[in-house]
Amino acid sequence: MASADEVKAIADAKVLMVGAGGIGCELLKTLALTGFKDVHVVAREAVLKFRPDMKIAAHHANVKDPEFGVDFFKQFNVVLNGLDNLDARRHVNRLCLAAGVPLVESGTTGYLGQVTVHVKGETECYECQTKPAPKTYPVCTITSTPSKFVHCIVWAKELLFAKLFGDRSQANDLNAQSNDSGGSTKDDADVFDVHEDEIYEDYGRRIFDHVFGYNIETALRNPETWKKRGAPTPKYIKDILPLAENEENGISNNSSIEEREQSLSAMASLGLKNPQDIWNIVDNARIFLKTLQIFFERRKQEMGSLTFDKDDQLAVEFVTAAANIRASSFGIQMHSLFEAKGIAGNIVHAIATTNAIIAGLIVLETTKLLRNDSKNYRMTYCLQHPSRKMLLMPVEPFEPNRSCYVCSRTPVSLEVNTQQAKLKDIIEKAVKAKLGVNSPLIMHGSTLLFESGDDIEEDVAAHYAQNLEKTLAEFPVPITNGVILTVEDYQQEFLCSINIKHRDDFDEESDGIVLSGEVPTVASGSDDHADESGEKLPIATTEAGDGSDDVEIITADSLVTSGTKRKLGVDITCNDDNSGNTKQNTTLTTNTVAIAGGKRKLDDNENDVILIDEDPGNRKKTRLE
Question: Could you list the active site residues?
Fold first, then answer.
């Protein structure tokens, strides 16, 4: 039974809840039933009001929007995260640090879940622990020799979707090069541009023929590639969907205004209702053309800035159709939209009971924070199978990591070829993708090299644009080996120093950028995901809005017996919007070991130790330096 002081603390608390998906909906209900009176919710979806006397302020927006800055966060007693992507989680973590507001993190994947508490100066922040790097595929596998459906999904999502609807200025591997004048295009460089007076149906058919026909024919010209693997079959729209049939199915440019306004879903427009049906090649072609038409006619204002979003129905339809058509060319089994969305969006379908358990644990930790009961803060892990007759495993939080580049502001090192790498490469691949900075300001000493923002004067913006195209060594004061760059983000109140190290050669997967230090080695966007065979999916290369996240989970298998040790790094995607990994990845990746019953001597490469008391009711987690 709660004391009068506890009841008053709960009633008077002002709580910010970020995310209203699987965990968020359960959490909002639990907060209401516990007696919280003032809750603000930042989410993209509608929020139900569970109790008439409860103040629920719903902000239907992205938490990364400028309106949700440090001053906004300072008004709250505690922040509760129910997000489903690493980028947003890191952003909220930094705002909480800057505002001095405690953060309760959470996540679930199937039967697994966790709740962690982060208090500035008392416990580690969300970014104190590195994230395991997911497996990536060489670009040649994605563009030339796919063998799994996931390869086709990545091609459709990261290459084709980005080329058609994203930033056209970004380098892309879709434009097949050929000296054969008999190719399908006169100029490969402008094949994705809409020609003057070209109707969208003709544009769609031309793009179809280029990416599924001409590009594959170009790949077939190298017979050595296909000696030990099945050769693909080029697909042309005239062979799948003749123009007359196309018009009959309502994709003609002459289709009525009423039909075009019927829905922003190509499936609905074409009468395809069941997302678990596997479309045949004709239906995939119809969906491909229809999605292009809707994007260009109904969402033209978004063109040039779109990135794939698993919650964007039209984007999912386009990626599914494109991936299926490519899969059919390479003899790979096609998948339903339901399955394709799960792969593209890293979705694991939630278990309501797990979400309810985690929501309850979040509220328990919140009440401790409101009482300043720091001795009883716990990180609690929900297990699928009992360990020592326990399904909930509480451990004490770590102290702040002195090597963390976020809360301890420890410098990081960046290895690049300073003669070849451009400033825009550093910003996109390292500062934004790996450091999680949204609005970067880059300085070399007292010289401002780049700043982002909407209020920058045109001549200054033009100067920064010129700087983006310069290699590091081309600046008036060259950025070479040993130079230190300063990165700031005013919205996050984030500051970091980057020590530049010149390096001549890189392997293919590093992409010419190697960032070292206490840095989460996960790029923004959709993250690590396991397919049917257990192999990880490649990481997204674009900035994500609602991709999934990798967080450390302690499972029953990680609690080893006395006298043994094991590195922890069980990679579980924990999310609130039903998105995450399809299965548990047990790759051992971090420098954390679990020891039951006492200390063990560390090897040189082992930095962190978890000590687990023999008493299951008193589990403590202590960092040994």
Answer: 140
